[in-house]
Amino acid sequence: MQIKLIQGEQGRISAKQVQESINPIFDWLTNTRLVCIENTGNRAGGSYYSLSQMQELSAVCKKNKLSFHLDGARIFNAIVENDYTTKDIGPLFDSISVCLSKGLGAPIGSVLLGDKEFIRKSRRVRKVFGGGMRQAGYLAAAGVYALDNHVERLKEDHRRAKELSSIINKLDYVNDVLPVDTNILIFNLKEHVNPEQFLQKLADKNIKAVSFGKQAIRFVTHLDFTDGMLVEVEKVLKQF
After folding, report:
1. Which end of the chain is flanked by fewer CB atoms within 10 Å, N or C?
2. pLDDT in tens, 199-238
3. Which domains does the chain have, with CATH numbers?
4. Rg from Cα positions in the chain
5. Which pLDDT score, from 0 to 100, does residue 1 have?
6. Is the N-terminal amide bond of 40 cis, ω within 30° of 0?
7. What b/e readout covers 201-233, taking b as 16+ CB neighbours within 10 angstroms?
8. With a threshold of 0.85, does the pTM exceed it?
């Protein structure tokens, strides 16, 4: 199996790039079979695809008989920032994965979507790898509650992330901040700042963040992050 990674724009690839990356049919080349996209993009700072971009990608996949998968771990973050719905997105893909424990706030769980035959095969693969869980109804109930109550409130996470971005942009020890579209905020510390020491100082104040390579730091706003906490984070950041 050969995996091609396409250099996109802020985590997004185009239909043209996919078309150009499809292998010609030669005996010595692997057959191109699958296209995967992530919406929203984690390492791209929560960027999202527009409906028209996904439609164009889907059309290329159908034309070339390629399977099209959506890593939709944070798909509802994209939905509340756009004018499309789950019904608009569903028909574009052959399979979709959705995480219920990120922005939606369920304690655990992800959902895999596809047609009946795809799900049948997926269940078999899960079983082969030892997957399976008893009393899963409790987890399903939490997931249903999250879907019923925590989708629209994702806009609050996005607002706080953008406010936090404005704060961080003004700090003299920060080099730059990636554009903030949803609830993920990635910024780069200046070269003289040690990322590990920076993260430890945050942890000492009970502020959780992660290193994202070299000088990059990632913050994620979520269900349990309040306006009051945002004020406290601002105070701590300004003390460095």
Report:
1. N
2. 999 999 999 999 998 999 999 999 999 999 999 999 999 9
3. 15-149 (3.40.640.10), 154-237 (3.90.1150.10)
4. 20
5. 55
6. yes
7. ebeeeeeebeebeebbbbbbbebebeeeebeeb
8. yes
